[in-house]
Design goal:
mainly alpha, single chain, rod-shaped, 0% strand
Length: 547
């Protein structure tokens, strides 16, 4: 019995733990689905939902979804992707499961991760594989990935590949503004590739195109300024001066830093045409502008110094200035310190996230163990206490019966009948009390009671001969009269049911004491009713007493 009890407790605890884990997983799955749906429009909200999810409790599919959604949230929120190093896991998972859409999302996020980690050339190689896998009719995916490949190739100085991508992007869009942007990129890429004459000719064709922007467009000054640079590099400095002066005339409200850039260009262009006074004048006008050069170009001061020295050399034929090695070394040291600081920050951020996840896992595990222990201890204590109370109650009732027997034996003849009747009532009450709670403990107690006075434990819950005697004592020989009036009419089981009904036992109690199901008891009652010709709803006991 004890082994069965402990086994039941273990099964219950395991079932409860399983239910808790399942419930937690379902809740996390719901949060993960909501985060995936929100990430495109509200990446900050998606990040909050993801922060409440324990990655290590997820299955493989949910982990892949978590990795990609987190990376998208970081990317759209302009956060560092340094902690998204698990993206290859998601890429491989979706490749194995043939989930093309999520595989593409995972790859795009992974490509951004590689670019941020200065692994651009590796990213370009992966882009080739991904683009080849995109269906030809999925232009949107093609466009996004080819745009990324163009920028990556440009930053990696892979100019021919970047130019090819710019051309593809330009000829695969119907939007004039987008076509202009790609044409602008191609202009700059040709210049960076050293193909200056080709860049100038391309600029001419853009100016004549139907997708060229108007002069009131915010991007017009930048494009025309870069086009003027192409003209100057191709020996058409006079035309370049006209274009930049037209830009300044049309845009008198340009900010000081933008004006400084155009003045520097005009200084160079005038120097190239031989107009040294105009070049010097534009350099002086830059010095009069109030702007922070550090926010414009890291090498702005160096470039302006170089430009002034070049103009002076052209005017005097003498080269002035010495290289500032100390400044250059300081700049290199500063760049190295900044690079080291960024690397350390990325490492600490990744380590912090890892420790946070580990701490959360340890806390959850400890709480689950404590909860399980408390539940097991509580259940054990309650069951043992209940069992002990029932055993004590049964022992008290057995002691009561023993005391009743002793009183009968010691009573005088004239008082014996009264004592016996009282005893019978008490014993009948004990039977009814036990029968009202049909438990295993009460069964054991009734077996002990029915075996009182014998050395052998009976398998029956009731000593029927004793019960018949008690029924005769309490109800004026009811059992004896039943047998006399209806000889051989009822079976033994039916006689037991009739006597218990006479004593006021319910169907449930009769079922327990006779060790039969309630349905069987009802069937036997119906049989008794038929034998007595008693209609449904009539009192069987009243019918027997009336005979």
């Amino acid at each position: 019995m004890t082994k069965f009890l402990y086994l039941t407790l273990v099964v219950a605890v395991v079932a409860m733990a399983s239910a808790v884990v399942t419930s937690c997983r379902e809740a996390e799955a719901v949060r993960l689905d909501r985060a995936e749906a929100l990430v495109a429009e509200r990446p900050d909200s998606a990040a909050i939902l993801l922060s409440d999810i324990d990655y290590f409790t997820l299955d493989d599919d949910a982990r892949a979804k978590y990795i990609v959604t987190k990376a998208q949230a970081d990317l759209l929120s302009r956060h560092s992707l340094v902690t998204d190093s698990l993206l290859p896991v998601a890429v491989n998972h979706y490749k194995e499961t043939a989930d093309t859409m999520r595989w593409l999302k995972a790859n795009i996020a992974y490509l951004h991760y590689l670019i941020e980690m200065d692994r651009s050339r590796e990213a370009v190689g992966i882009m080739d594989e991904v683009i080849a896998a995109i269906p030809p009719d999925s232009i949107d995916w093609q466009y996004e990935l080819r745009t990324l490949r163009m920028h990556t190739a440009m930053t990696s100085a892979l100019y021919p590949q970047a130019i090819a991508e710019a051309e593809w992007l330009m000829y695969h869009t119907v939007f004039p503004r987008v076509k202009f942007q790609q044409a602008y990129y191609r202009l700059g890429l040709l210049f960076l590739a050293g193909r200056k004459q080709e860049a100038k000719e391309w600029g001419d064709s853009v100016l004549r195109s139907d997708y060229m922007i108007t002069v009131d467009d915010p991007a017009w000054p930048d494009f025309m300024g870069d086009y003027a640079e192409m003209l100057d590099e191709c020996g058409q400095s006079a035309r370049a001066i006209e274009i930049v002066e037209d830009i300044l005339r049309r845009n008198p409200g340009l900010p000081p830093d933008a004006k400084a850039g155009f003045f520097a260009s005009l200084a160079k262009y005038n120097a190239n045409t031989g107009n040294i006074s105009a070049a010097t004048d534009y350099l002086d006008r830059i010095d009069s502008l109030d702007y922070d050069r550090r926010n414009v170009d890291v090498n702005s001061d160096e470039y302006l110094s170089f430009l002034r020295n070049a103009i002076n050399f052209k005017a005097t034929g003498h080269l002035y200035g010495t290289p500032d090695k100390k400044l250059k070394n300081e700049l290199r040291l500063k760049e190295r310190i900044n690079s080291d600081a960024v690397s350390e920050m990325k490492y600490l951020s990744a380590r912090k996230m890892q420790l946070t996840i580990e701490k959360k896992n340890i806390t959850i595990t400890a709480l689950c163990i404590c909860l399980a222990l408390v539940i097991v201890a509580s259940v054990l204590f309650w069951m043992l206490r209940r069992r002990r109370a029932r055993l004590l109650e049964a022992q008290e009732r057995i002691d009561t019966l023993d005391e009743m027997l002793r009183q009968v034996r010691e009573a005088r003849d004239d008082n014996k009948n009264a004592v016996l009747k009282k005893m019978v009532l008490q014993q009948m009450g004990i039977l009814k009390t036990f029968a009202s709670a049909p438990t295993a403990q009460n069964q054991e107690a009734l077996k002990k009671i029915s075996s009182t006075g014998s050395d052998i434990l009976s398998d029956r819950l009731v000593d029927w001969e004793t019960l018949y005697t008690m029924t005769d004592e309490l109800y004026d020989g009811f059992h004896r009269r039943l047998l006399e009036r209806f000889p051989d009419l009822f079976s033994e089981k039916e006689i037991q049911i009739i006597c218990l009904m006479k004593a006021g036992f319910t169907t449930k109690e009769i079922s327990f004491l006779t060790q039969q199901s309630s349905a069987t008891v009802y069937v036997r009652k119906s049989a008794i009713r038929k034998k007595l010709n008693t209609p449904d709803g009539a009192d069987i006991i009243a019918r027997i007493d009336s005979e």
